[in-house]
Design goal:
Layout (H helix, E strand, L loop, with lengths): L13 E4 L4 E8 L8 E6 L6 E5 H4 L5 E4 L2
Antiparallel strand pairs: 1-2, 1-5, 2-3, 3-4
């Protein structure tokens, strides 16, 4: 698989975290004071569990990997 970039991230994509949790991208966020784009993620098993991470963290293969699940 080719390396993903910020432009490849879209709502609905699913990423698996190292510890086995699967997260779905709900939206991309550009904070006014930040140069880096962030994403809001929702846990696939528990929709009340959300997190916001930078796209850089999401694209770090040591932390997350894109999944088809």
């Amino acid at each position: 698989m080719a390396k993903l970039t910020t432009n490849d991230i879209v709502p609905g994509q699913r990423f698996e975290q190292r510890h086995g949790f699967t997260w779905r991208v709900t939206r991309l966020i550009q904070f006014p004071t930040e140069d880096v784009v962030h994403v809001q993620l929702v846990n696939e098993r528990d929709a009340s569990s959300t997190k916001t991470v930078s796209v850089n963290a999401l694209l770090d293969r040591n932390l997350f990997k894109l999944t088809d699940k």
